[in-house]
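Hi Q.,

Before the meeting this afternoon, I wanted you to have the uridine-5'-diphosphate prediction in hand. No need to reply - just skim if you have a minute. The sequence and ligand are here:
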Amino acid sequence: MTAFAARGRATLTGAIHGSRVLVTGGAGFLGSHLCERLLADGHEVLAVDNFYTGSRDNVTHLMENPRFSVLEHDVTKPLGLDVEVDQIFNLACPASPPHYQRDPIKTTLTSVLGVYNMLELARRTGAKILQASTSEVYGDPSMHPQPESYWGNVNPIGIRSCYDEGKRVAETLLFDFHRQYGIRIKVVRIFNTYGPRMDPEDGRVVSNFIVQALRGQDLTIYGDGTQTRSFCFVDDLVEGFVRFMATSDDVTGPINLGNTGEFTVAELAEKVIAKVGGPSRIVYRDLPSDDPKVRKPDITKARAVLGWEAKVALDEGLDKTIAYFAKVVTP
Ligand code: NAD
Ligand code: UDP
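Predicted structure with the ligand bound:
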């Protein structure tokens, strides 16, 4: 049992050279990669997850590490940890549109109550907290690319609002806890990130297209495929997280993290078909409402403050992701 799994300050190990880090959503796609990186960096890591979209399988390979533990917990409930925590990465929230729209009320509450509970934990323990916010705070943007100074164009009552507005209120709470109580905060606005360990049934475009191609099914483009996204490989994003968490306390963000390569959804589909081969063709489905028409991060701030930019080009990242899915998806 690790120090985190045990309860009470008296049980904390003295042998840890790194920090004690809590990762909510740690059994999800991004969270599991982050936990892996934090362990490699020598930290003691507690993943907190209710397995709504994540899975124990994502972290099975980490379970033998004595510095790693997993706690099944819903972040909408207060977290009664009484151990020291140095850092909190708050990632708990379903992220794919079909998942976050399945129970939209729960999605809003997960963002709002989840971050509130983590901020209260940060207040009790003195931890600093990094929030996984999103490019969705910009909504269907009228400014392109999107800098952090852009306030966004979000429909407050549409089918994406549970996610977008939940994340916006979360940012508000973070900045108010910072101003009111001096809590140390770091707000990352993540742009579409993909890679190994996404759930094959996740529903986001990169995993959908790859899984469809590997199964020999047709690739489903929503709308006419002219909408754009900028796709970031997971390792790049995790590097950005780690750099941001290490900044001095006056660096609060928000900071955009994303790859600046911009592609239409049709271009993505064509790339995946060309790489996977097989009989798949493209079919067109209705575009869901409020689907952003363009998206690309302005990363001037990330470059200046973190010395960060994405290194993995879409072709390279797709190859790695296809190789992963080829092992887990049956044709
Ligand atoms: P994911 O669905 O794989 O991971 C989310 C994790 O949170 C899952 O393990 C899930 O079980 C857990 N979770 C959900 N509700 C919870 C609750 N109430 N209590 C405890 N755990 C809960 O998605 P992801 O892509 O890894 O996203 C992680 C975070 O990053 C999310 O907050 C998401 O909004 C944010 N984000 C991701 C992207 C991206 O492109 N991947 C973009 C913008 C923001
Ligand atoms: N999309 C698509 N086919 C799919 C899944 C998604 O054409 O099978 C589109 C979706 O409508 C959107 C883009 O791809 O325009 C990115 O969708 P995703 O759900 O990955 O992310 P988000 O819309 O949240 O950026």
